[in-house]
Amino acid sequence: MLQVARIVGGRRLQGEVRAAGSKNACLPILAATLLTRDAVTLRNVPNLSDVQYMLEILQHQGAEVSQPAPGTWVVRAENVSHRTPYDLVRKMRASICLLGALVGRLRRCEIALPGGCIIGPRPIDLHLKGLARLGCDIRHDAGYVHVDASKARGEYVFLGGRMGSTVLGTANLVMAATLTPGTTRIDSAACEPEVVDLCNMLVRMGAHIEGIGSPSLSIEGVERLHGCEHSVIGDRIEAGTYLAAGAITDGDVTVRDIAVEHLGAFLDKLEESGVKIQTGKNFVRATGRPTKPIEVTTQPFPGFPTDLQAQIMALQLTVNGLTTVTERIYPNRFMHVPELQRMGAQIDIEGATAIIKGGRPLSGAPVMASDLRASAALILAGLAATGETWVQRLYHLDRGYEAFDARLTALGADIQRLPASQLPSGFGEE
After folding, report:
1. Which whole-number Å values give the CA distances from 420 to 91, 111, 112, 379, 383, in the listed order?
2. Of 231, 247, 269, which residue is a domain's last?
3. CA dist., res. 102 & res. 323, Å (int)
4. What is the spatial distance between Cα 370 and Cα 253, in angstroms, rounded to a whole number?
5. What is the pTM of this model?
6. For residue 7, with 0-12 CB atoms within 10 Å meaning exposed, 13-18 middle and 19 or more buried, which class applies?
7. Residues with active-site annotation
8. Shared-domain flag, residues 92 and 240
9. CB pairs under 8 A, 24+ apart, for 278-283?
10. How far apart are CA 243 and CA 225, in angstroms?
11. Which residues, including other chains, have CB under 8 Å from residue 261's CB and lie 6 or more apart?
12. Residue at a domain's end among 168, 198, 231
């Protein structure tokens, strides 16, 4: 059943919220459970539609999946299929992480090209070039990628691309290399916390990886990996979104169970804009609203994350003056802008830069989410707007935020999740 969010703006958010497990860490980690025949126990797994999709895919591949407690999943993949069909992987791009896991475990793979958020081109050419450097034979046929890794050996791989390093490409190469004979050296590897979390779990499984957290990784292939227990890191993007929600309402919000160092560039920009930030062991507190325009440029970690670009844009709509947001990772990631403009936002797009003329009042309106982070940004704008905002296509939101509306309500927001049939006349759900 299609659902919408109804937000009544003007409520100040106050209180504490716990960061759920990281979606962007959890999906590659779930794929990595296919690298061993043993049971792998994962904790702090978020309850998201993308996670459910990945669990369904693992079951289709032959894994046994169970949930002994909320947030805890056990995966045992004694027998694994090498082929992953389109009807399963089409729902999310992160399903491409099965590529590295299957190549590592089975030395072959047939996987359909994946789907996911529509935020511009996100090719997997670097993934495939990296595997080719290891000696994999790769061919394309009818929307499928066929990989034969029977002759693969450790080799030097440069993973840099036009937009910087590739997070999922790094995950794929690392997973494949853990069970590939010889030593694989990866330069321009992604340094994101989610990649570090994956590498740390692989080490617990018996992988030999050096340079974790740096752009230069060295992986010595082993004969087999074993089971382990692992707790997924907190979601830095979710944490940043809650902090932005507090700030856009001139509130006082604390996010717990989050590594402060994972939010460095985002917190720097909040402070630069005038929001008061307090940090401690595994918590961040944001107090007050932004008062100054800023310049933001998205970059690979430790730079400003592209997944918080839409949220910082919504936040800066409330600030007098010109804020610029330049998107260096996905230059077309401005699909939320026309919807914000429906609410009264004044934003001009010049190439890969959005110029925000802030300080204009926002008015509630019916808006349509185009992707995961856009949906969060529209809800944030609704929190600051006068009147009612109706956000449609909530299924995007549910891909990456666990009980977002309920947790905002606990902080004081006036937000309801309703059937699309309750949209006011003339709004319509497409």
Report:
1. 22, 35, 32, 16, 20
2. 231
3. 45
4. 27
5. 0.95
6. buried
7. 117
8. no
9. 282/234, 282/256, 282/257, 282/258, 283/254, 283/255, 283/256, 283/257, 283/258
10. 39
11. none
12. 231
Q: Would you place residue 428 in the very low, low, confident or very high pLDDT band (cuts 50, 70, 90)?
A: low
What the block records as the tokens of 152 is 């693969």
pLDDT per position as a tens digit, 296-335: 999 999 999 999 999 999 999 999 999 999 999 987 899 9
| Under 8 Å between Cβ of 331 and 352 | yes
Q: How many structural domains does the chain have? A: 2
In sequence order, which residues have a C-beta less than 8 Å from that of residue 1 and are 6 or more positions away? 419, 420
Q: What is the mean pLDDT of the chain?
A: 95
Q: 51 and 129, same structural domain?
A: yes
Sheet of 347-350, strand order: 295-297, 321-326, 353-358, 347-350
The verdict on 226 and 360 lying in the same domain is: no
Rounded to whole angstroms, how far apart are CA atoms 34 and 104?
Answer: 9
204 and 282 inside one domain: no
Q: Extract the tokens encoding 259.
A: 């590594």
Distance CA 179, CA 181 (A): 6
First-to-last alpha carbon distance for the chain, in angstroms, is 13
Give the residue carrying structure tokens 């990595």: 32
- Minimum mean pLDDT range among 102-111, 173-182, 204-213, 419-428: 419-428
Q: How far apart are CA 88 and CA 387, in angstroms?
A: 40
Has residue 114 got a pLDDT over 80? Answer: no
Specify whether 273 is located in the same domain as 402: yes
Segment 61-85 mean pLDDT: 97
- CATH at 118: 3.65.10.10
Give residue 129's domain range.
Answer: 23-231
Query: Are 136 and 147 spatial neighbours (Cβ–Cβ below 8 Å)?
Result: yes
Q: What is the 3-state secondary structure (H, E, C) of 132-154?
A: HHCCCEEEEECCEEEEECCCCCC
What 3-state class would DSSP assign to 338? helix
**Residue bearing tokens 């600030």:** 319
Q: Tell me the mean pLDDT in the region 124-151.
A: 94
Same domain assignment for residues 170 and 265: no
Task: From 300, 301, 304, select the one nearest 323 (Cα to Cα).
Answer: 304
